[in-house]
User: Which sequence fits this backbone?
C-alpha cells in the first residue's frame, strides 16, 4: 500500500474563505472571532492579539485555538494572510442580499461582471495552486501507478469534475470508473479492491452521499483521494490523500463557478503527475486515443463526401 500524506499546515489559506466554510463548526467564542474578521477584516490586520481578544470578547488562548482551527500556527500568521487577501480581494466582495455570485451585485454592468468573474477565477487559481502539497501528490501518483482500477464520484456539480477525472485517466491508459450517483457506486463496490484508488470530489466535504461512498470503499482497503474546500470536513477526515481548494461559494448561488475551476486545477495537476510517472505507457495510450479519433473523423468525412456525391448523381449533376 502506498504511503499516504495530508496537508497539515496551511499558511496560504484565505482566512475569510476558511471562516465561511467552517463557521457552523465554531464554538460561540470562536464565532465572535469569526464575526470580527468577517465584518472588520481591514481593521483586524492592524490589531494586536490582545486588542483582537478584547474586541471579540474572548481570551487570547481562544484566539490562538481559533487560528489553529483555520490552519494557522498562531495569530501573527493569520493576520499576515488576512492582510494579503484583503488587498487581493479588494473590490470583488459584497456578501449581502444583493450579491448574485462572486461579489457581483444585481446592478453591476456587464463589464463589471466580466472583470469580477475574471478576478475571482484568477484569485482562486493562485490560492489553490499554493495549497497543492507536492509530497501528497507524489504519494498519490505512486498509488495510482500501483492501482488496478481507479474510481471517481462526486454529487451534483462535483460529478462533472469526477467525470473529468475518469475521462483523463482512461485516456492515459488507466481503467477508471465514474459513477453518476451514489447508489451506482455502492452497488459497484466490488469493482475496486484493496490498494485501488477512489477519487471523491465535494466542495463542502460533508455531502452525505459522498461520505457514505467514502466509508464503504475505505472499509474495503481502497485508498481515498479527496478534493474539497474544507480541511475539517467529514471527507477530509477519512482521506488518505487530501487536496484543498480555496474558492468562495455562497449559500444562494448561480452555480459551482470558481469552485469547479479550483477542483479542475487539482485534477490537472494529478493527471499530469500521473502521466509523468508512467510516461511510456501514457504516451502510447494517448497516441492510440488520438489515432482512434483521427480515424473516426476521416470516416465521417468519407461518409459526408460520399453522401454529397450520391446526391449529385441522383440530381443528374
Assistant:
Amino acid at each position: 500500500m502506498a504511503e499516504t500524506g495530508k496537508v497539515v499546515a496551511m499558511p496560504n489559506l484565505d482566512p475569510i474563505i476558511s471562516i465561511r466554510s467552517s463557521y457552523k463548526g465554531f464554538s460561540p467564542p470562536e464565532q465572535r472571532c469569526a464575526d470580527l474578521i468577517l465584518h472588520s477584516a481591514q481593521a483586524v490586520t492592524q490589531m494586536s492579539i490582545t486588542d483582537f481578544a478584547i474586541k471579540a470578547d474572548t481570551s487570547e488562548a481562544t484566539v490562538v485555538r481559533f487560528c489553529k482551527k483555520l490552519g494557522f500556527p498562531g495569530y501573527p500568521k493569520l493576520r499576515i494572510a488576512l492582510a494579503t487577501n484583503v488587498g487581493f480581494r479588494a473590490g470583488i466582495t459584497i456578501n449581502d442580499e444583493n450579491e448574485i455570485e462572486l461579489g457581483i451585485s444585481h446592478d453591476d454592468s456587464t463589464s463589471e461582471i466580466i472583470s469580477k468573474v475574471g478576478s475571482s477565477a484568477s484569485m482562486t487559481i493562485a490560492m489553490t495552486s499554493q495549497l497543492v502539497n507536492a509530497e501528497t501528490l507524489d504519494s498519490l501518483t505512486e498509488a495510482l501507478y500501483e492501482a488496478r482500477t481507479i474510481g471517481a464520484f462526486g454529487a451534483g456539480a462535483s460529478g462533472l469534475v469526477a467525470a473529468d477525472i475518469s475521462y483523463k485517466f482512461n485516456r492515459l491508459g488507466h481503467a477508471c470508473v465514474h459513477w453518476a450517483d451514489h447508489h451506482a457506486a455502492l452497488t459497484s463496490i466490488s469493482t475496486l479492491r484493496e490498494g485501488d484508488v477512489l477519487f471523491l470530489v465535494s466542495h463542502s466535504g460533508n455531502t452525505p452521499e459522498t461520505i457514505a461512498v467514502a466509508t464503504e470503499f475505505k472499509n474495503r482497503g481502497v485508498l481515498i483521494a479527496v478534493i474539497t474546500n474544507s480541511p475539517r470536513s467529514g471527507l477530509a477526515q477519512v482521506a488518505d490523500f487530501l487536496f484543498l481548494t480555496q474558492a468562495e461559494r455562497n449559500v444562494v448561488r448561480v452555480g459551482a463557478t470558481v469552485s469547479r475551476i479550483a477542483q479542475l486545477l487539482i485534477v490537472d495537476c494529478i493527471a499530469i503527475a500521473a502521466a509523468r510517472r508512467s510516461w511510456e505507457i501514457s504516451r502510447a495510450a494517448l497516441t492510440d486515443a488520438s489515432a482512434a479519433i483521427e480515424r473516426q473523423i476521416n470516416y465521417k468525412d468519407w461518409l459526408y463526401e460520399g453522401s454529397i456525391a450520391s446526391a449529385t448523381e441522383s440530381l443528374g449533376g
About this structure: The beta strands are 99-101, 104-105, 150-154, 176-179, 197-202, 223-228, 241-244.
